[in-house]
Design brief:
The protein is an alpha/beta fold. It has a five-stranded mixed β-sheet, with helices on both faces. A two-stranded parallel ribbon has the order 1-7. Strand 5 and strand 6 form a beta hairpin.
Length: 301
């Protein structure tokens, strides 16, 4: 996952409008390190911090010099800004599931979190002078929400990590090792112990998707699917998997809804089931998932 064509350009914070006056209160000190490593296990902590001050996630790989340079530059800026934002470092080779969750398909890349909402900042290597300007924009937007706290520099290492089951831990380890088939088996075992656990269900959906697309030729799959009718269910399912894995969920949803319309019986059920699984991968809270659910209901009834 290095040096590939990505989704994002320069920062666009227009989707975050300022709240009305009095919409937030400034905080003084916020517990957390200025620069932290973010993994699947520590992602919840980054989201918690983002409710109080902005978090900037930088996605990097030791195999990409440009991403290492961006990581280093952002670390310098984070320290110089004195804890006004937290820099979360995501090693995409070790934390594959985090990169997938943010639909990052290439490094270098950076995403801001403001009150839990992701805002794309960079995809590709920005000009050095552009980085400070983008951070200024992020801080100005956060200030409009009353998010003007400062990190206390404590990384919380003295706080025990939440306990997770043996199968859950094994699943996370397998994800980090890119052993997606084993990860899926462990997530299923964990879900049998904790049915209804949304985090485990999300992990299982991610693992199953990655196990299906790993080792395939995505371009070949998409080209083949484009030349075949929607009644060729197996090919269209594979194409939808590729689209979601590479950040094109809207196209994948539209494709599978067309398959539902064009088929019946077990083939239609297979397409419906896969679509619901991909909803889990993208996240039920995403607006495009809600829109696709309505379209699916219309296609079925």
């Amino acid at each position: 996952m290095t040096e590939s064509l990505g989704m994002y350009g320069a920062v666009d914070l227009s989707s975050l409008s300022a709240p009305p006056a009095g919409g937030g209160e400034a905080a003084s000190k916020v517990r957390g390190g200025v620069v932290v490593d973010v993994t699947a296990q520590s992602m919840a902590s980054a989201l918690d911090v983002s409710a109080k001050l902005p978090v900037v996630l930088v996605f990097y790989s030791a195999r990409s010099e440009a991403s290492v340079a961006l990581d280093s530059r952002l670390q310098e800026i984070a320290v110089r800004r004195g804890g006004r934002f937290q820099l979360g470092r995501v090693d995409v080779d070790a934390a594959v599931e985090v990169a997938q969750a943010f639909r990052v398909t290439g490094v270098p890349a950076a995403v801001a979190l403001i009150q839990g909402q992701p805002v794309p900042l960079f995809q590709g290597a920005p000009a050095d002078g552009e980085i400070d300007k983008v951070i200024d924009q992020v801080l100005a937007t956060a200030a409009q929400y009353g998010m003007t706290g400062v990190l206390d520099g404590q990384d919380g290492a003295d706080e025990p990590e939440p306990e997770i089951s043996e199968h859950h831990r094994a699943a996370l380890d397998a994800m980090e090792a890119n052993d997606f088939h084993r990860a899926a088996d462990e997530f299923r075992a964990a879900l049998r112990e904790e049915p209804g656990n949304a985090e485990l269900a999300y992990g299982l959906a991610q693992a199953e998707l990655m196990s299906r697309v790993t080792g395939t030729d995505p371009n070949a799959i998409l080209v083949r699917a484009s030349s075949l009718p929607f009644t060729d269910v197996e090919t269209q399912l594979a194409a939808a998997d590729v689209e979601v894995a590479y950040g094109r969920a809207q196209s994948a949803f539209a494709r599978l809804i067309e398959v539902v319309k064009a088929t019946s019986g077990q083939e239609r059920e297979d397409a419906r089931k896969r679509l619901v699984e991909l909803f889990e991968v993208v996240g039920s809270a995403e607006p495009l998932v809600a829109e696709a659910r309505r379209a699916l209901a219309n296609a079925l009834f």
